[in-house]
Amino acid sequence: MGFHGYNVPPPNASDAIKPWEVHIPQKDIDDLVALLKLTPLAPPTYENALPEQDGYLGLRRDWMVETKRYWESSFNWREQEKYINSFPHFKASIQDPVGDFEIHFVALFSKKADAIPILLLHGWPGCFIEFLSILDMLRERYTAETLPYHLIVPSLPGYTFSSPPPLDRNITSDDAARIFDKLTSLLGFESYIIQGGDLGGRIGRIIAANHPNCKAIHLNTGPMPPPEEAEVRSQINKTEEEGLQRHLFFKHNGSAYAWTHATRPSTIGFVLSSNPVALLAWVGEKFLDWTDDTPPLDLILVSITLYWVTHSAASSLWSYRQFYGPDAESHGTKRWHINKPLGFSWFPKEITPVPRAWVETTGDLVFYRQHKKGGHFAAMEQPEALWADVEDFLGILKDRFAMRSI
């Protein structure tokens, strides 16, 4: 497959980095379709048939009926797989105290000597698919000889094509942060920056706080409790207050999934791994509720298909007990304060849309922009706007800190 030079890692990259390609066995696709056809849906109820397309009590049955029908009869996995493989894929063998991992990642490597390495980190229920629109846009805009960046999109441990967490010990976001820092070293990068949202943003904060080679971070989510300072809490504009009210609604009406992941991951893991319709309901709801405009159905289904065929519905839940439930660690501002340049993009339909004044308490905020469109999956929903923010953030780094390259 012609990658036009984007598939060549830096000259000093480790031999532990190997090219790779996605290929799901046909039997797995056939079994998926068979299960879809055999699985009944819940009968009509008051809760799943509310008038005027209201879905505040959960997924609507009419959406499930139509989506299941399309998934089992019209969705073309091989077409999606061909597009996925139009980007260079790799796996990296990483040894870590938690265990040995094969970390999958997609990358566009530049041939420019001063190209800036950027690690793009996803969350749940996302995956590397979230960032392909940005990569697609940049490979149209640049050649491998002119691309100003190395773009690396890893799959988190336990997600899609990366190794699952070990069976004999717990894994935390701190461990994932360390593993990704090792990945950048294997690629030969002595410094890099991060862009992340959701769990990728949490892990990114830990990387930025604890690993010196990370020089800056740009986020599009920032879950945190309200700062204690009354002055900071009062510096909220009308748009930000509306966002906090949406978050309050989410906290009381939409966060039960996270508490389930945190307190009963084994149980819900069995449920989500038992049947693709169960997975569709659990994950599809998030793509509908957490976005500004509903993504194309194929984009939703390619993500859910990847979770199903890679058996990662259960192995991707490990992070939640660190942040939710009785044993959760604090994820406030103090532990992950970032003494490095911090950029932040605010999207109105984000489920944790924190005000600027709050973000400023967590690090050296040098870039902040509010958008009028977009939600939780910003890289997927608003790739041009998000990437414009990243480039403006990089411009500030060069101007303010005289950084010719990171």
Automatic annotation (TrEMBL):
Xref: InterPro entries: AB_hydrolase_fold, Epox_hydrolase-like, Epoxide_hydro_N, Epoxide_hydrolase
Q: Which Gene3D superfamilies match?
A: alpha/beta hydrolase
Residues annotated as the enzyme's active site: 198, 320, 376
Task: List, in alphabetical order, the GO biological process terms annotated in this UniProt record.
Answer: epoxide metabolic process
Q: Keywords assigned by UniProt?
A: Hydrolase
Q: Identify the residues that the record assigns to the Epoxide hydrolase N-terminal domain, covering every copy.
A: 17-131
> Quick check: keyword Signal in the entry?
no
Protein origin, superkingdom: Eukaryota
**In the record, what terms sit under GO molecular function?**
epoxide hydrolase activity
Q: Name one Pfam family in it.
A: EHN
What protein family is recorded?
Belongs to the peptidase S33 family.
Protein name (database record) = Alpha/Beta hydrolase protein
